[in-house]
Specification:
Layout: H1 20-45, H2 52-61, H3 65-82, H4 93-103, H5 106-119, E1 124-131, E2 136-142, E3 153-160, H6 167-170, H7 174-184, H8 188-196, H9 206-211
Antiparallel strand pairs: 1-2, 1-3
Helix pairs in contact: 1-3, 2-3, 5-7
Length: 216
């Protein structure tokens, strides 16, 4: 059984880009429903899994679309919360060098990230990911799809492109949301830790979000 992790910051912490109202709906309703449905579907299968990542992998292998959609969305949302920080940051050290090498600089990455996300048709996610050799890529995935199972890619940051992520605050202007998001919210410290751990066993897992809720 998986649990719904708490947000790593207050509901008002990401304003004005993401409002308290949006975070309550997004985390307490949408994310919670994905967690609840995943647990129900796993129970109905009569199987046990040691991680959410294992559930996602099994759903992909067995072509269980309903389970995959809920489990992957539960994973994606937890990664999304960690991809944001109330404190405005800048990439540093090795990650900054990789951004400069792969894109020509942070402004060029921003332009590509916003373009990729704004042009994406329908629901999904836009990711900054590291390749095993150290290069960086921007890519969008549809619906619940993510980078799990893509062994050559380690996710560094993600922004939610589903309308429920931004509609209350930015209406239908996804580009404005992405621009405001990229300027203020990326958690470059988290991205740097993912970049340093790329391809290894120290990359983030859903269990880390769950363990953060455990009593001391």
């Amino acid at each position: 059984m998986i649990v719904l992790p708490e947000l790593p910051y207050d509901y008002k912490a990401l304003e004005p880009v993401i409002s308290e109202r949006t975070l309550h709906f997004h985390h307490d309703k949408h994310h919670a429903t994905y967690v609840k449905t995943t647990n129900e579907l796993v129970a109905a299968k009569g199987q046990s899994f040691d991680s959410l990542e294992a559930i996602v992998a099994e759903a992909q292998a067995s072509d269980d679309t309903k389970l995959f959609n809920s489990a992957a969305q539960a994973w994606n949302h937890s990664f999304f919360w960690l991809s944001m920080s109330p404190q405005r940051q800048q990439p540093k050290s090795e990650l900054k060098d990789a951004i400069d090498t792969s894109f020509g600089g942070l402004e060029e990455l921003k332009t590509l990230f916003i373009k990729e996300g704004a042009a994406h048709f329908g629901s999904g996610w836009v990711w900054l990911a590291a390749e095993s050799a150290g290069g960086l890529r921007v890519l969008a995935t549809h619906d619940a799809a993510n980078t799990l199972g893509k062994m050559s890619l380690t996710p560094l940051l993600v922004c939610d492109l589903w309308e429920h992520a931004y509609y209350l605050d930015h209406q239908n202007d996804r580009k404005a949301f992405l621009t405001a998001w990229f300027d203020a919210l990326p958690n470059w410290s988290f991205a740097a830790s993912q970049f340093a751990a790329r391809g290894g066993s120290q990359v983030w897992t859903y269990a880390q979000a769950e363990s953060a809720m455990a009593p001391a």
